[in-house]
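Form 7-S
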Amino acid sequence: MKLLLENWREFLKLESFEGGIDPDQAKAIEETGLILNRYLGEGSYGKVYEVEDKETGQRMAAKIVSTLSTGFASETKNYNWIIKNRDKLPDDVKQHLVEVYELIETPDRKYLIILMEQLSPAPRSVIDQIF
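Output:
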């Protein structure tokens, strides 16, 4: 595990991550005007990708949730709550919540795309303290 954390930059570049890309989700992402950069992993109810806004170049994480999944309603509710209430929370609480930018339902209503800040790997000093 330590080797992986010490070489996180190389780990993030591994081609095996490309295997996690769902072609249908890739198409949905591109139809919303985003550029799909790479697969990051999976969350509770969907896959997570690194995407880039074509106009601004901003890189974000995009969680793709099927509108037919059991978690669609709760994901929509929870992420909308974060969008509406994050700035009202005390700083000591807010620092632990990811910033959610926007929820986009694809034109065919097949997916919900949750755009949020992309978290970076922890700095080396933090990793050293943990281990």
